[in-house]
Specification:
Strands 1-2-3-4-5-6 form a 6-stranded parallel beta sheet. The chain has 7 helices and 6 strands. It has 193 residues and is of the alpha/beta class. The chain is 46% helix and 17% strand. The N and C termini lie close together (10 Å).
Length: 193
């Protein structure tokens, strides 16, 4: 199991302010705390970053040489994602967070994953069905994601499928459906142990 430290997230007011103010020390301290707590990746979630161009590059440069775990680049802004990838020295361990089964998103994100030899998270959802309620629906989207990646030459070992756990407080049965989805993914794709 891989742990992704997701405390650098633009939704948090403190993080948003740190990003706007370019408070490097705050960001470094937060990343190091996650690394010391056992995170395998540090997620840099800047959201759409439409009003703050250059945020991903700034974060990557701020953390360069500070942490020794790979980064997870998390934004819906393809330009920010691309610019971040361009400044990284070694992208083979980077995790792109994320694509979905939507054709437009799949094309852009998988293209970046291929061009920069990164890992990628595939969210088992799309604009047509949202998040399917059952493992079969999630598997159908997962298969579309994996098939598309494989057509581009991306190996299954570089793809991390996310069954998307819905809030237990809203739909308690979804905890089991997510676990069943993981089982079905493993049986279908036979990932390395």
């Amino acid at each position: 199991m891989l742990l992704i430290g997701e405390n650098i997230h633009v939704i948090s007011k403190k993080i948003r302010n740190a990003l706007l103010e370019r408070n490097a020390e705050f960001i470094k301290e937060l990343a190091l705390k996650q690394q010391y707590a056992g995170a395998d990746y540090i997620d840099l979630n800047i959201g759409p970053a439409k009003r703050t161009p250059g945020t991903m590059v700034w974060l990557i440069e701020t953390l360069s040489g500070v942490i020794n775990v790979p980064l997870s680049l998390d934004t819906t802004n393809a330009s920010e994602m691309l610019n971040g990838l361009k400044v990284l020295k070694n992208t083979s361990e980077v995790l792109l967070n994320s694509t979905s089964g939507d054709p437009e998103r799949l094309e852009v994100m998988m293209g970046l994953a291929k061009d920069y030899n990164t890992n990628i998270i595939g969210l088992t959802m799309n604009n047509v069905s949202g998040i399917p309620k059952d493992p079969e629906g999630r598997l159908e989207i997962a298969m579309e994601i994996v098939d598309y990646a494989n057509e581009l030459g991306i190996e299954n070992s570089k793809i991390f499928l996310d069954p998307l756990i819905l809030p237990i407080s809203v739909a308690q049965d979804q905890a089991m459906e997510s676990l069943n989805s993981i089982r079905v993914f493993k049986e279908t794709f036979d990932p390395p142990d």
